[in-house]
Amino acid sequence: MLKRDHPVAFAPGFLFSSSANMTKPPSEGPSSPRTASRLDALLIEGSFRVAAEARPLELQGKEIIHLEFGEPDFPAPAHIVEAAMRALREGDTKYAPPPGIPALREAIAKAAQARGISATAEGILVTSGAKPMLQYAVFAVVQEGDDVLVPNTGFPIYPSLVRLAGGVPRRYPVVRQGDGYALDVDALAAAVTPRTKALMINSPHNPTGWVANATEMEAVAKLALAHDLWVISDEIYDGLTYEAAGSPSFAAIPELKDRTIVIDGFSKRYAMTGFRLGFGIVPPEIARHITSLIINNTSCAPHFVQRAGLAALEGPQDCIAEFREAFRARRNMFTAALNLIPGVAAPRPAGAFYAFADVREALAHAGISTGALATRLLHDFGVAALPGTDFGPGGEGFLRFSFASAPALLERGAGLFRQCVESLAPVSAIEQYAIPEAM
Question: Does residue 44 belong to any structural domain of this protein?
């Protein structure tokens, strides 16, 4: 795992609330002008919150095993780094075209076509990371009061962006099913209202590792067509699946191609998290509108970073298979270790690089919450993981561990987690059923 000499930091004076929002404490001097109420809609990723919580412990000399970040511990492949450096030396330090440099857009379209997506360069938009493209997609299709279907559990930025756009997130469940996770198709259909405008979906899925199968994809397509919905498909973990070489794209379904916006990027499968390079595959008729959002926000993705992305697509692809096989081995080892812990069940994820461990039995035994267990694991045992509630209310009773770290760290982390669970004192029958005294 890469050493975090410069961990994520936040501006002095900012605190994390229990809902993971950042709020500024009152000033001791004259009151400041009011901030916009839209800021109340924003959530942050739990990984950044937990990293900030871990930092003071590290400064006190405590070793922390970081299993909270979804970041490959591999360095970016050498040919990609060299392409960025070469571009800098050659003077690619000026503005680039807002939609992206033509060569990269063509290369992305070609890669999308190989996945069965009817893409052209005109429908490819390059952004500074996948998150801006996610925001642009939401802003392009969601109006005030629109309902948007978001997964529960799911990436916390989805409901955050919907609220920021004035929409209302409506959650649908991704559920534990046997030795894995699945989309609850009936519950998804039941979540549709007359105001539903869009469906956000993520496969391979963070945090569960679920990968949509053909039946689930057909159900989503029928629902989108029947209710005239946009589909915003987050496919950032494409290429990191363990049952097949890739994962199907919703945009490859012919009936959905004109109503699907694909969000993707280079961070996960090429280990390029710090390059901040993403892209969208969008219907050409809305490309110019989203380009306007890019111009109003970042102007463009840096030219030299786009050159690195071009090298990633046009260079050797062995790195993806190497990363995937390393993650597969880590997945197998780590979930096997977790499944040996009494009260813990860790289904093997079909994709991405997270173990979403079911700890409900352990929590019931001890009479504590998911958040309390995650806090105890960090502060008393030195392992940073995320409570499932960071991904929605359906995450109560689950912890998310990233197995993108080195095997030795994963082995130690699993051992410390076992010690943590075994240290939990059982709740007595009296405590479990006691009626609180009246105040």
Answer: yes
| pLDDT over 60 at 90, yes or no | yes
pLDDT in tens, 263-274: 999 999 999 999
Count of the separate structural domains present in the chain = 2
Torsion, CA 370, CA 373, CA 378, CA 384, rounded to 10: -40
Full-model pTM:
0.89
- Domain for residue 373, yes or no? yes
Cβ burial 349-381 (10 Å sphere, 16+ → b, else e): bbbbbbbbbbbbebbebbebebeebbebbbeeb
Mean of the per-residue pLDDT values of the chain: 91
For residue 229, give its domain range: 78-314
Phi and psi angles of residue 242, each rounded to the nearest 5 degrees, phi first: -115, -5
For strands 260-265 and 230-234, give the pairing.
Answer: parallel
Quote the CA–CA distance of 250 and 272 in Å, as a whole number. 24
Chain position carrying tokens 């919907």 = 162
Q: Does residue 7 form part of some domain?
A: no
What interhelical angle do 303-314 and 102-114 show, nearest 10?
30
**pLDDT for position 428:** 54
Residue 114 CA to residue 91 CA, distance in Å, equals 32
* Of 426, 414, 355, 343, residue with least CA distance to 381: 414
Are the C-beta atoms of 188 and 223 separated by less than 8 Å? yes
195, 147 Cβ separation under 8 angstroms: yes
Residue in the block written with tokens 């959002």: 293
Q: How far apart are CA 222 and CA 167, in angstroms?
A: 23
Looking at 265, 295, 314, which one is the last position of a domain? 314
* CATH code for the domain in which residue 400 is found: 3.90.1150.10
Q: Decide: 165 and 185 in contact? Cβ < 8 Å.
A: no
The CB density around residue 387, as the number of other CB atoms within 10 Å, is: 23
One domain for residues 71 and 82 = no
User: Is 365 found in the same domain as 284?
Assistant: no
CA–CA gap between residue 159 and residue 148 (Å, rounded)? 8
State pLDDT tens for residues 291-312.
Answer: 999 999 999 999 999 999 999 9
Amino acid identity at 237: Y
Query: Which one of 314, 341, 372 terminates a domain?
Result: 314
Q: What is the pLDDT of residues 219-256, one digit of tens each?
A: 999 999 999 999 999 999 999 999 865 689 999 999 99
Burial of 8 (C-beta count, 10 Å sphere; 0-12/13-18/19+): middle
